[in-house]
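How a chain folds remains the central question behind the approach discussed here. In the encoding step, the backbone of a single protein was reduced to a row of integers, each denoting a local shape. We regard such an encoding as a compact summary of how the chain folds. The sequence in question and its structure tokens are set out directly beneath this paragraph:

___
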Amino acid sequence: MTEREEKAKEWLNRNFGKAMEIEALKRRLERMESDLERSVKPLRMREVQEEPTGNSQEEKLAEYIDLQRMVEVKILELGIEDQKTIKAILNVESAIYRTILIERYVNRLSWKQIAAVMHFSPGGGHFYHLHLESLSAVLPFIPEEVKRNDRERLGET
């Protein structure tokens, strides 16, 4: 993989990683919802007095609400980043390259799923080569501010 292809892949994979993080947070929210549903019951005075500090239903609910807000913010940020990604990908001339890039970096399909959609062999060198070519094709359309931020982050001017 060339340096150009590596840069394009890194930029595109940022959203992929964020999406996986959001999915993990959503699963955590679901577990918290389940815990909250089970714990919502009338409490007797003795149960309240015996409950250790930091485990009250109110604190659990507050933690759940905070996590829910954080997930909503991350989803909004991801949507904005996905729009930038889509805009860059739509500039690529080849429909095959666009399909590979959209399915992987926007729809977040596995390589095996993408190969099935496109009727390619997932382990085939041809499919891998098409992915590398699509990365090279999208690089010129990556937003300039992203490239500039990357150079600043790496200490380049």
Q: What stands out?
A: The chain has a mean pLDDT of 81. The chain is about 75% helix and 0% strand. The radius of gyration is 22 Å.
